[in-house]
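This section describes the prediction task in plain terms. A model, or a person checking by hand, is given the sequence of a single protein chain and must write out its three-dimensional structure as a string of C-alpha cells. No templates, partner chains or ligands are provided. The sample shown here is typical of the held-out split.
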Amino acid sequence: MFPGLVQRRRFDDLNERELLALAIAAEEDDGRIYETYAARLRADFPHSAKIFDEMAAEEDEHRRRLIERYRARFGDTIPLIRREHVAGYNNRSPVWLIENLGLDRIRAEATSMEEAARNFYLKAAQRTTDAPTRKLLGDLAAAEASHQERAQTFEERHLDGEAREQEAAAAHRQFVLTYVQPGLAGLMDGSVSTLAPIFATAFATQDTWTTFLVGLAASVGAGISMGFTEAASDDGQVSGRGSPVKRGIACGTMTTIGGLGHALPYLIPHFWTATIIAFILVFFELWVIVWIQNRFMQTPFFRATFQVVLGGALVFAAGVLIGNA
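The expected answer:
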C-alpha cells in the first residue's frame, strides 16, 4: 500500500451491521447539510428555510429508526463507518461549504441527495436477510423516492403566493448584485476605456495587425485588472453582493469581451473595412449597455442612452484625435 493512500471498503463487502452503521452516519450527515441550508437561507428566504428545517427533522427521524433497529440486532456500539470509507458510494461534494450558494442550486442539490439516498437503501435492502431490517430499508427507500412530492407539500405549506413573490424578488436581487452589476461595470469599462487606445493606434498606424495586438493587450489587461479589483473590493459578507470570486469572474470576463468586440475586426487586413465594422460593433456594444441598465438596473432609457452614448463618443473622439495628431 502506498503511503498516504486510504484503503476503502467495497460496498458489496459490507455486512449488515456495517450497512446499518453506514446508513446511520449518512442520515446524520444529510440532516446536518439540510440544517446548514436552512441556516443559510433563513435571512433572505425564510420560507424555503422552513422547508429544509422539516427535511432535516425527517432525516433525524430516519436516523432514529435506524438506530433502534441496529440496537435490536447488534447492541449499542455502532462502528464508525462513513461515505468516504466505502468505494463506489455516493460521496457528496461539499457544495454546502460554498458561500452564497443560490437557492435553485440548493434545491437541486437536495433533490440529488434524496435520489442518491434512495438508491443506497434499495441496494442495501437487497443484501439484507433479516426481514424487519429489510422492511425498514425498503420503507426508507420509498420515503426518499417521494422527495419531490414531500418537497411540494412543504412548499405548499410554507410558500404561499406572497412568499413565492418575495423569494423570487430576493433571488433576482441577488442575481443582479452578484452577476449583472459587476458584469455591467466590466462591459462598460471594456467597451469604453479601450476605444481610445484601439482607435488611436488604428488612425496613427493604419496597420490592422498592430491595432489588433494593442486592442487584445488592452482588453485582456483591463479584464484581469477589473476582475481582481472587483473580487478584492468587497467580500460580500456585509453588502450581501455575493461571492467575490463570482463577481470577479463576471466583471473580468465582461471587461475583456467589451474590449475585444471592437478589436477583433482588425484581424481583417483591409484598414477601412476593419474600421467600419469596428464602428458598427461599438454602436452595438453601447446599445447593449443601455439595454442592460434599463432592464436590470431600472435606469430610465433616455438617461442611460445619454450617459453611455455621450461617454463613448467622447472617448472615441479622443482616440481618433490622438491617432491623427
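For orientation: Confidence is low (pLDDT under 50) at residues 1-5.
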